[in-house]
Amino acid sequence: MNDADLLEEYSKEIMGKYYNSDSDKMTVARLIESHRNLRNLNIERNGVFDEARKEGYKHGYEYATEIHKDEINLLREELKKLGKVL
Is 0.85 surpassed by the pTM of this model? Predict the structure, then answer.
């Protein structure tokens, strides 16, 4: 299959039963523009996911240290005592 045939088949695949060979043929320019748009959306989405991950980690850390603060303080005191003994 040559490139023109591949574009034709892809046009049919994405348009499905609404494909009209006179107006819906995929061109390299349309394919590139579509890819650019998808790539930009992916970059934006990944940025949002990264920020949400960082925020979730921060909240999880704060929550865990808050509910275990008494245990953490006790361990710190024990470590201080060990330092004096050694």
Answer: no
